[in-house]
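#struct-pred

JT: dropping the chains for the assembly here, can someone run the whole complex?
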Amino acid sequence: MTEQEQLRLTARAAVLKALAHPTRLWLLEQLQQQEHCVCDLTDGVNADISTVSKHLSVLKQAGIISSRRDGKKIFYRLETPCLLKMFGCVEAVLEKNAKAQAALLKPS
Amino acid sequence: MTEQEQLRLTARAAVLKALAHPTRLWLLEQLQQQEHCVCDLTDGVNADISTVSKHLSVLKQAGIISSRRDGKKIFYRLETPCLLKMFGCVEAVLEKNAKAQAALLKPS
DNA sequence: TTATCATTTGGCAAAGTGACCAAATGTTAT
DNA sequence: ATAACATTTGGTCACTTTGCCAAATGATAA
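RK: done, full complex below.
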């Protein structure tokens, strides 16, 4: 692995890392259709507002979402919708795993 | 977030988490064309064999790669090639970020 | 100004991750 | 059986992540 590759892959890993948390994935799904303020998002999550805020900050840091202020509220919106389509392949992995599990349980 | 969603998103996050490390991304790229043994892969990475082995184990646990033994060697192979295509969108995020950076530096 | 609302930030404890070394396992060759 | 090779596993340590609370910030309303 050259130093070039190291840099490239570390950057790529950083984006994936930002995605790799159930709460953050849920937040992204909420932002899929329209922007939302933190208060909206907090209602749906079983966690403190500050926790949600920090998750949003992680996604923003990674460049996945952006924010704008409107009065007292801050609205977040998805920057790269292709990410959500991308999860199709992740689902494929999960389905494959589920089938493999099933096959083990039923050894014909 | 319902309990259903929680489970679904945790599973999805687990796959993304397995991907979210530069060394593991590098290993996947090596496995893109053909299967490889641990010894092959260790040569290219600047890390202990045991470290590489553990990274491979993480990928295998997630169902992303599989392994087969052939004599003394163990060969790993990619199970879901679509994952590599998927990185196109991750690159899009990175490019967008790079442009945003550039724009900040050159405030016309 | 003061109060109030929406959000972020700092601090802390618990849990998880990543890397190395050394020891254990499994396989083939002598 | 013993030795040698390829890989995995267990242990340890430093570092990071996550989540909550409390305090700070920013903006509007009274």
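JT: nice. The longest helix of chain B spans residues 82-105. The interface with chain A takes residues 1, 5-6, 9-17, 19-26, 44-46, 62-64, 79-80, 82-83, 85-94, 96-97, 100 of chain B (CB under 8 Å).
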